[in-house]
Amino acid sequence: MNNTPISVSETSDALVQDILAAFLRLAKEAIAARGVFRVSLSGGSTPKRLYEELATSDLDFARVQWFWGDERNVPHDHADSNFRMVNTALLKPANIDSANVFPVPVDIDNPAAAAINYEATLRCQFASPEAVDEAGDFPAWDLVLLGLGDDAHTASLFPETSALDISDRWFVENWVEKFAAYRYTLTAPAINSGREIWFLISGSGKKEAVGRIMGDDRDFRLYPSQLIRPTRFFVTSDALPEGQSV
Predict the structure, then answer these.
(1) 57: exposed, middle or buried (C-beta count within 10 Å: 0-12, 13-18, 19+)?
(2) Low-confidence ranges of the chain (pLDDT < 50)
(3) What is the domain count for the chain?
């Protein structure tokens, strides 16, 4: 973790522009190498601003496939829906073909069935040998975008929840007691199989959580982001703990 590259920006605006440039470079490389760019999306305010910028970019949208790393157990038109946020910020403005969009099929009354259905979708889309990791067990995302909660959760892998212990599934429903609600989430091994895995972190309120995932005190049940093996951090300078080297 301590050897993971850290890109530091002084402001949140600069952070978004740095992520945008890196995203576009990576997309072009993936498309040139494999003909497609498969990305797992995150919710949150910084990703939303990235998506708004992507909507007006020169990205080759016809060769990008959009997936969700996690979702709330609400209808797609609900204010809390990650799909709704991405749809408003990116999909509609860029007029992205729905054939390249793979949202979680939320089932409020049966979240377990919805998670199974989405895992089946993922396994279908990542069925070819070059689309899975070296062991052939998990999806080889070109990019996984992740946020970081104040409690050091990421995706919908929350502290002390059952999804933290799952190693044989790609995508699951996850009961989160503090919300008294189900969330949907990629499992840790299905995140770690990404070719690139980026944490997008902005603001002084994230400083303690950043310290937890970059520090030596390891307890993934309390700090779930410790389960993740990121390839890069994008952070604002005020989110870095004092003394953290870059």
Answers:
(1) middle
(2) none
(3) 1
Q: In this structure, what are the phi and psi dihedrals at residue 66, rounded to the nearest 5 degrees?
A: -110, 125
**What digits encode the pLDDT tens for the residues 79-119?**
999 999 999 999 999 999 999 999 999 999 999 999 999 99
* DSSP class of 98: G
Predicted local confidence at residue 243, as pLDDT: 66
Tell me how far apart the terminal alpha carbons of the chain are, to the nearest angstrom: 12
What is the three-state SS of 189-227? HHHHCCCCEEEEECCHHHHHHHHHHHCCCCCCCCCHHHH
The predicted structure's pLDDT at residue 3: 85
Q: Looking at residue 71, what is its pLDDT?
A: 98
Would 243 be classed as within a structural domain?
Answer: no
- Residue 26: give its domain's CATH number: 3.40.50.1360
Distance (Å, whole) CA 218 – CA 127: 34
Neighbours of 223 (CB within 10 A): 20
Q: Does 218 reside within a domain?
A: yes
How many CB atoms are closer than 10 A to CB 224? 27
Q: Tell me if 14 is assigned to some domain.
A: yes
Q: Residue 101 and residue 79: Cα distance in Å, rounded?
A: 19
Domain limits for position 152: 6-238
166, amino acid identity: I
